[in-house]
Structure formats: structure tokens, C-alpha cells
């Protein structure tokens, strides 16, 4: 079997990447300045323990509670995330990535600064979104990645962004094909409408069929009861909301829920051997 970058980074087939959602950061409307950054670090460390203890294959650290999101973040966001990740690094025992929502350049900068092996972002397309008109410049971002020494950072392109609609009148298969041909993503993510929302199975299958050798990740809505079905199509999964207490976005990750989903994922993967 041919070795892929997924094998090299994650060491398993069909990896499950757990989201580690950081609390609101300085500059965000929801930031708790009284509790300060130490409270963010403490919650993140507790959730990291639950995720790794529950058996996830990797973690991706994001500023998920920086709502409403910016498409070009303020410097304080990535700077604070770098401090938090620096404090967590001694405790991270699995491959890790980062995501500065919704800023591709900042995500790459953070990955280079912290040694993260992959990022996920919206790198291509123009969208009408809840955050305004959302434009991208993948050529500029690719050159920035090279300038800052990030050539080894794997880029996961989300081509079905949450809370947004592609402005061009193009079908998902053609978007996938041209994205792969013109921009050479390391992986493609397929999402539902919001964090935790189900990813349409037909959309996932369409992207997988059109992506050729480029790995495809199901990016939202993965649960213990559907992880086998989703991984039967996708090359990996990104999971956040399901791992949280009661499956609610605002809550912290809970080890028992992690174990439940990872048990189902590992049982499915065992059948592939």
C-alpha cells in the first residue's frame, strides 16, 4: 500500500482529529478579562486531557469561541493562541494542528510558530456569509507560506464553509476538481451549515469522487452512530461538538463521549486491515 502524508502525520488510516476549542480570547466580545488567559489555558488543558485520554488520533486547536468571526484577524488573536499552545505543548502527545478562524495567513503563521503539522481554513473562493462578503487569495497565501518557512505545514481546504454560500454558480464536483488542479490542497474538508451540523452524505461522496488522490475529511456532524458510515466515504474526520458534554457546542469535552466515538471509529478501522 502506498504511504500517504496521512500515514506519516497520523500513523493510522482514517484518522479522527479532535477540535480543541479555546474560550473567547482578548479582543473577542466574549472574553472574560476578569478570569484572564490563565482560565483559558486551564480549560484547554482539561479538555486536552479528555480528548487524548479518550483516544483521539490528533487535535486541532482553534479560536472557536471568537464569535462573531473576522475574515482577517487582529494580531492579538494568533499571539494569544501561540502563548496558550506554548503552555499546552508539554502535555500534547498526539499530532496537532491549528486554525485561526477565518484567517489563512494567521493560521499558517501560528503553525510555523508552534510546530503544528497542519491547518484548516477557507483558502479558495468568494462567499456571501454571515460575516459579510468573504473573499480569498490562495495565491498570496501560498507565497506567504513559502516565505515564512511553512512548506511542511499541511493545508486542509474547507470548500463548503460554514455560514456561507459560494457566489459562483458552480456545482460541488467542478469546484473540487479545479481546487485540486489549480491550488494543490493537501486535503479537502466538507462541512455542514455550522459547527456540529450534519455533513450531507451526498456532498461528501461527490467531493470524494472528484478529489482524485487528495484526501477528503468530513468536517462537521460526526457522531458515534454515524462515524463508520462517514469514514466509509471520507479519508478522515474532524470532530468537535460531539465530544462535548451532552453534545452541546458551548460545553467542554467529556472523556466518556470521546471514548464512545473513538471506540466506534476503531472498530470500523479494524475491519479495513
Automatic annotation (TrEMBL):
The organism's place on the tree of life at top rank: Bacteria
InterPro entries on file: Aldolase_TIM (IPR013785), BtpA (IPR005137), RibuloseP-bd_barrel (IPR011060)
Sequence similarity: Belongs to the BtpA family.
Identification of the protein by name: Photosystem I assembly BtpA [Nocardioides sp. JS614]
